Amino acid sequence: MNWTAIRSIFVFEMFRFFRTIAQSFLAPVISTSLYFVVFGAAIGSRIEEVEGVSYGAFIVPGLIMLTVITQSISNASFGIYFPKFIGTFFELLAAPISFLEIVIGYVGAAATKALIIGIIILITAFFFVDFTIAHPLAMVAFLILTAISFALFGFILGIWAGNFEQLQIVPLLIVTPLVFLGGSFYSISMLPPIWQTISMFNPVVYLISGFRWAFFDTADVPILTSLLAIGLFTGICLAVIWWIFRTGWRIRE
Amino acid sequence: MQNIVEIRDLKKSYKGGFEALKGVDLDIREGEILALLGPNGAGKTTLISTICGITTSTSGSVTVGGHDIVNDYRAARSMIGLVPQEINLEPFERVINTVRFSRGLFGKRGDDAAIEKVLKQLSLWDKKDSQIRELSGGMKRRVLIAKALSHDPRVLFLDEPTAGVDVELRKDMWDVVAGLKADGVTIILTTHYIEEAEAIADRVGVIAKGELMLVEEKNTLMARMGQKELEVQLTEPISEVPMLLQSDALRLSDDGSALIYTYDTRAERTGITKLLSDVAKEGLVLRDVVTRQSSLEEIFVNLVNNGDNAEDAA
Ligand SMILES: Nc1ncnc2c1ncn2[C@@H]1O[C@H](COP(=O)(O)OP(=O)(O)O)[C@@H](O)[C@H]1O
Ligand SMILES: [Mg+2]
């Protein structure tokens, strides 16, 4: 394993992140604050409590998930697509490194950035609402697992994409709806039965439910089911990446 | 001299079936400068890309320093530096960071002294904190070279380092290459300028339509470059060259109907006048006289023409 190379990729990617630090941090902090104002204060004042938690606090895990998922995907997909776009990708191919090392470098950096932003949002949330975290370790573990698995997904997306439009279309048309409909802002149990059933096909439901369990010890689905779901998703992404590695799909001609 | 790169029957077909390399055999000697000369589309970039691991070959093998580029790719690639044809750099990155990144990719620890050395070698030291986008085209190419040299490669591939570069920068680049050779780096560069190969190469390989037509010492090649053939066609075939005409430069065609004389167009005396008067003295009757360039010269002329056509089309 060429750890020096992995570290180089990681550091280089993190530098890119810090170069645009204002954008990287400010945008999610502002949008999250807006969510708290609109949903927490304006609407939340009429909803009172969901599953024994104040509405303002209830949406915190969902908001963090929303941001970590979208950030992981966009960081990783952009991170690997950009070198392809400007033509510096050849450097990775000509270096004495394996595809696995490339994946660890880029996915690691993308997941780290998403985690940093997730934590910033968590801190921001403390300014708006009062809450305690029931299972802090599980919360952190969940966050890391989510960041990594969606960064893997983003990596695949970035390898697949042939232009910027394709890079954005999947998050826009598939991921964002799934995340919004995944119970970020409501409990699945609040829905009519038919929608509850449909929601069970949305993988993000399991993530948000599990993450909310780590916060408040209540969940829409059993925590084991949540773990299974994210494990499955990670497994699928890893399998696809392994296949790309074997075939050189969209990498080496 | 020892071979540092050995290429055996290397073939490459792109998706869609286009055969860009049709079985290339080539040995590159340690410490030499080898120029690969060929028109656009000849397969120069494909050959380099395959050796460096950017594309995969269809069949054949390549070893670098004895290491197979597929089975032992880490060892093989560690020895190689690549300067691509296109200037591909991140515009907002700083010079020193992108060079550090390249070194790291090759598994070498950050070493400020090594980075400083390579940046100074390419006269980039005072530009080390500049963003790439602030640099001129010539400087950008130097950054590419600095990146390729950042991990101290033994073999450096330069893909058309002077294409589209003005005369002054071209000379500049030649100096850089000469300096690298003095440091013991083996250099393979591609070009479609004959003068460039003539100026800096030790050996020259000519590549066209995916085939390596020849590889030769530059000096031998240049000596043969100016050669021309004069064919004296006779009315009556003869069985052997008459006494008076016998020389190394003259031979009889297979059917005995023509004398073929090889001469150097650049020589002070070509010997044609003497030849023709000797032919007359021997009582031979001429049917016709034809001159043609040696096969090598023909290759070059075609080469340049094709290259020009390709450029016109582009
Ligand atoms: N990715 C590719 N897919 C299909 N054909 C290609 C590709 N890259 C190069 N070729 C073809 O292979 C031939 C050799 O190209 P190249 O190696 O770039 O030539 P050179 O570097 O000598 O100009 C050209 O005819 C070119 O069109
Ligand atoms: Mg080329």
TrEMBL record, chain A:
Q: Note the Pfam families from the entry.
A: ABC2_membrane
Q: How does it sit in the membrane?
A: Multi-pass membrane protein
Select a single GO molecular function from the record's annotations and give it: ABC-type transporter activity
UniProt keyword Membrane present: yes
Query: InterPro entries attached here?
Result: ABC-2_transport_permease (IPR052522), ABC2_TM (IPR013525), ABC2_TM_bact-type (IPR047817), ABC_2_transport (IPR000412)
* Residue ranges constituting the ABC transmembrane type-2 domain according to the UniProt record: 19-248
The keyword Transcription regulation belongs to this UniProt entry's keyword annotation: no
> Where does this polypeptide localize?
Cell inner membrane; Membrane
Keywords linked to the UniProt accession: Cell membrane, Membrane, Transmembrane, Transmembrane helix, Transport
Membrane-traversing stretches: 21-43, 55-73, 85-108, 114-133, 140-161, 167-186, 198-215, 221-245
A single GO cellular-component term from the record reads: ATP-binding cassette (ABC) transporter complex
The UniProt similarity line reads:
Belongs to the ABC-2 integral membrane protein family.
Question: Can you name this protein?
Answer: Transport permease protein
Q: What is the lineage of its organism?
A: Bacteria, Pseudomonadati, Pseudomonadota, Alphaproteobacteria, Rhodobacterales
UniProtKB/TrEMBL annotation, chain B:
Q: Name one GO molecular function term.
A: ATP hydrolysis activity
- What InterPro entries would the database entry show? AAA+_ATPase (IPR003593), ABC_transporter-like_ATP-bd (IPR003439), ABC_transporter-like_CS (IPR017871), ABC_transporter_ATP-binding (IPR050763), P-loop_NTPase (IPR027417)
Spell out the PROSITE patterns in the cross-references. Answer: ABC_TRANSPORTER_1, ABC_TRANSPORTER_2
One Pfam family, short name: ABC_tran
Tell me which residues make up the ABC transporter domain: 5-234
Keywords of the record: ATP-binding, Nucleotide-binding, Transport
Question: What is the official name of this protein in its record?
Answer: ATP-binding cassette domain-containing protein
Q: Which organism is it from?
A: Sulfitobacter sediminilitoris
Q: Which lineage ranks, top first, belong to the organism behind this chain?
A: Bacteria, Pseudomonadati, Pseudomonadota, Alphaproteobacteria, Rhodobacterales
